[in-house]
Structure formats: structure tokens, C-alpha cells
Design goal:
The protein has 17 helices and eleven strands. By secondary structure, it is of the alpha/beta class. The strands form two sheets. The chain has an eight-stranded parallel beta barrel with strand order 1-2-3-4-5-7-10-11, surrounded by five helices. Strands 6-8-9 form a three-stranded mixed sheet. β1, α2 and β2 form a beta-alpha-beta unit. α6 runs parallel beside α8 and α14 packs parallel to α15. The protein starts with a helix and ends in a 34-residue tail after the last helix. Belongs to the glycosyl hydrolase 1 family.
Length: about 475
């Protein structure tokens, strides 16, 4: 696909660079950040012919309200003011993220997203920032990721370890969605002029084989990732599994009027993209995942996933990054297309947040990046995305993460995502949380509100082949 077509199809997109910097925190001593910001801005200019003129940063709730509701750190507020003014002075349009996983310690100690009150505190925090910064921020993102503080933390126990509650953690999904709706309403009530939206981690992939049960396994993966958050956000109903259960509603956390708040109109939907998955049905694992090719410790992750009716396996004969991520340029476009097929006109304009470029394979021994290789991979991905926008899918933004962003999560989890660490390599460090792997995120957790038995049966057993009439 020619660069001309790429330019034409993506000409209306807001180009920007995302950074994990928290502007409420004291500035770091190292001066390198500006250089890397310019480097990735140059990438976009070389490939698209435009200069990235938006910059998204994290406000820093723990720094702004360290001591409790109603109190504010004046120095932290001043740092936010100066950062926003500095961007505007350089002709850069500020975009502000309210939440990047971490809550203020006083809220975390009170239960975090397990506590419904956290949604109300978040709305009050959003309102205060809207009053202070609403005349300068052009785009508001309520959260960098809805799944991280909920599924990964309180359900699976990924960060930090030893507090994954399995089924009993599912109310966090409802509460963070409620917080997003309340925050959007609060920001609009202050007169903040910027567009408002949130971010979900887009998950997509391909069936491991042509077996119809592998296709069903992929649908289950997408249900427990994309649909778990987007069904309530866009359709006003919590995800229902194929056996008719609604795992979030079954916890008893939903109150009258909540879903109306959750479906508060979004000006955009951010999509954080990592890597495509190759998905198989649990009964097909022996066919597609020989134990000699992958670390047994990583294969143990599938002990968790098979309870949901699917498993993840490496791609065959596909080049990978240093972290084991498959290099499949069309993966992002295919995942966005699948999302469009599922939700259609219910989708708001999409803003892609691409943090798939942080690969140390693209950095030489002196710490300098391999510009040609990095840009070639980015060009391939953007070309597939351009074809999708030409077909009518509305993409309103694209943010490009640098090699410096999100490193903590990458070092710990990225190879795990792809299940592709060969036997001769050491497993990721630090090791996986024991309550995630050994105990099972969806086992042994009671639901006090509903008085149910422990454990979570999510999907029925696969029917016999002769009973299946569709693929």
C-alpha cells in the first residue's frame, strides 16, 4: 500500500504521542524525555506527512489528593498548570488522562474499586480538574485502561499479588464503568471544552485451527475482554455468557439507574493495542501446544484460561519481538474491524493508542533506536489501518507510545501474553503472582452479596462434534 493512500485515508486523524509521565509528580532529573518525544514525533512526520501536535499525559490522582477527599496538594496542582501552559506555548494540544491504574493510598486502603464509593470520589476529582484545566485540555481520557485496575488487579491478582479475589472481584468492573459515566457527566457540567472518552484494551486474534471450537474459543476470549467492558458502555447491559449468565450482575453490585449512567455518551473511545493472540479450545491444546516448545511455567497460565473456555498458544512460523509478541501488521486492523462488526453504529469515534513499539530489539548497544526498522513496522501497521478507515470505520486519533513507556508491565507480562518463551530462555522476572497461577483467579472465591457457592462456572462443556451444526 502506497504512502499516498496512507496519507489520504488518515488525513483527518489527530496524531499524537502518549507518555506515562504524571504531571502532578515532581519532574524526573533525566533530560532524555524531550529527545524521545521528538524522535517519535519525527516517525509520524516521516510516515504520514504531518507533525504530531497532541501530547497525552497522566494527571496523577495519588499526587493531587494524597491525604483524602476534599484536600489538594497545591504544589502538585501548580505543576499541572505549568505543564499544560508549557505545551500550549509550544503549539502542542494537551490531552489529559485522569487515572493510570493507581488510586490515592487512602482510597486503595478503603477497598479501591471494590468499593462503590470510589466511583463518586473519582467523579468529584474529575470535576475539580475540569474546573481548573477545562479551558486548556482538548481531550480528556478518564482511564488509560479499564481492565488493569479491575480484572488484572482485583480478579486475577496481577498487580499487586495476593489480592486477586476471583469472582468476588468482578464488581470492580461495574464500579469503574460507573466512575467513567459519572466523570464524563461531571466534566461536562463544569463546561470543560475538550472531548471526553475512556480507554479499553482491545483484544483480538485468530483461531489456532479451522476447528469450529477454536472459533468459539476466540469468541470467548473477546467476550471476557472486549465485551465485558463495551457491552455495558455501549449497549447498556452487562455481558452475558453463552449459557445465559451475567457474571458481573450476578455479584449483586448493579443498582437501578447505574447502566443509564454507564452509557453516558462518549466523544471517543480509546483503544490500547498490544498484540494479536492465537486462540484454541482447551480440548485442542495437545494438538497445537507441544510442551517441548514453551516454558512449562508459562503454560500454567492456561490453567486459568481454560476455566473460561479458551487457551492461548504461539503462532507458527511468525517473527516475534524480543518479548515474544508476534509481528503481524494487520492484527490491529483486524481487531478494530471485528469490534466494528460487533457494535456498528454504537461505537463512538475510535482513537488508537498504540503501545506496541516498545521493543528492545529496535535499540542498539548504545541505546539508539533502529529508526528504519521501527518505521517500517509502523508503516505496515498504519497501512492496514488506512485501508480500514477508507472502508468507513471512523478513526479520530492515533497515539504513538515510545520505547520508554509502559516498561514495567512489558518486562513482567509481555512474553506471557504471547506464550512464546522458548525453553532456553529464563522466565520473566519478577515471577508471576502465585495467587494468579497456582490458586486460579476464578476459583475458590465466594460472592457474599448473592450467597453463592465458591468457584465460577463460566461456560458449558463443548458439545460433541456431531451436535454442532455451525462453525
Amino acid at each position: 500500500m502506497s504512502d499516498g493512500f496512507l496519507h489520504e485515508s488518515l488525513r483527518c486523524v489527530d496524531w499524537g504521542v502518549a507518555t506515562a509521565d504524571t504531571i502532578a509528580a515532581p519532574p524526573p532529573p533525566t533530560p532524555e524525555r524531550g529527545g524521545h518525544f521528538r524522535q517519535w514525533t519525527d516517525d509520524l512526520r516521516q510516515l504520514t506527512g504531518v507533525v504530531a501536535d497532541t501530547h497525552r499525559m497522566v494527571a496523577g490522582w495519588p499526587q493531587l489528593q494524597p491525604d483524602g477527599a476534599g484536600s489538594w496538594d497545591r504544589d502538585a496542582l501548580d505543576r499541572c498548570d505549568r505543564a499544560l501552559d508549557a505545551l500550549l506555548a509550544h503549539g502542542t494540544r494537551p490531552a489529559l488522562t485522569l487515572l493510570d491504574r493507581s488510586l490515592p493510598p487512602w482510597l486503595d486502603a478503603a477497598g479501591g474499586w471494590l468499593a462503590r464509593d470510589t466511583a463518586e470520589h473519582f467523579a468529584a476529582y474529575a470535576a475539580e480538574l475540569g474546573r481548573r484545566f477545562g479551558d486548556r485540555v482538548e481531550r480528556w481520557i478518564t482511564s488509560t485502561d479499564l481492565a488493569g485496575p479491575t480484572l488484572a488487579d482485583h480478579v486475577a491478582g496481577m498487580y499487586p499479588p495476593n489480592r486477586g479475589a476471583g469472582r468476588a472481584g468482578l464488581p470492580t468492573v461495574h464500579h469503574i464503568l460507573l466512575a467513567n459515566g459519572l466523570a464524563a457527566q461531571a466534566l461536562r457540567a463544569t463546561g470543560a471544552r475538550g472531548r471526553i472518552g475512556t480507554t479499553v484494551t482491545l483484544v483480538g486474534g485468530y483461531p489456532a485451527t479451522d476447528d469450529p471450537y477454536d472459533r468459539l474459543a476466540l469468541e470467548r476470549l473477546e467476550s471476557w475482554t472486549n465485551r465485558l467492558f463495551l457491552d455495558p458502555l455501549l449497549l447498556g447491559e452487562h455481558m452475558v455468557t453463552e449459557d445465559g449468565d451475567s457474571p458481573v450482575e450476578d455479584t449483586g453490585c448493579v443498582r437501578p439507574g447505574d447502566l443509564e449512567t454507564i452509557t453516558t455518551e462518549q466523544d471517543l473511545l480509546g483503544l490500547s493495542w498490544h498484540t494479536p493472540f492465537r486462540v484454541t479450545a482447551p480440548e485442542n491444546l495437545p494438538r497445537v501446544l507441544p510442551t517441548r516448545t514453551c516454558q512449562s511455567a508459562l503454560n500454567a497460565v492456561n490453567r486459568l484460561l481454560v476455566g473460561l473456555g479458551f487457551a492461548i498458544v504461539p503462532f507458527d512460523d511468525v517473527e516475534t519481538t524480543a518479548y515474544g509478541w508476534p509481528i503481524i501488521p494487520e492484527g490491529l486492523a483486524d481487531a478494530v474491524a471485528g469490534l466494528y462488526e460487533l457494535y456498528g453504529d454504537a461505537l463512538p469515534p475510535l482513537s488508537v493508542i498504540d503501545n506496541g513499539m516498545a521493543d528492545l530489539d529496535l535499540v542498539d548497544a548504545t541505546g539508539h533506536s533502529d529508526d528504519d526498522r521501527r518505521r517500517a513496522l509502523l508503516r505496515a501497521r498504519l497501512s492496514w489501518l488506512a485501508g480500514l478507515t477508507a472502508a468507513g470505520v471512523e478513526v479520530c486519533g492515533y497515539e504513538y507510545w515510545s520505547v520508554l513507556d509502559n516498561l514495567e508491565a512489558k518486562f513482567r507480562y509481555t512474553r506471557l501474553y504471547a506464550m512464546a518463551v522458548p525453553d532456553h530462555e529464563a522466565p520473566p522476572r519478577p515471577s508471576m503472582p502465585s495467587d494468579w497461577l497456582q490458586h486460579g483467579a476464578f476459583a475458590g472465591a465466594a460472592v457474599p452479596e448473592a450467597g453463592r457457592a465458591t468457584g465460577l462456572s463460566l461456560v458449558p462443556a463443548a458439545p460433541r462434534a456431531q451436535d454442532s451444526g455451525t462453525s
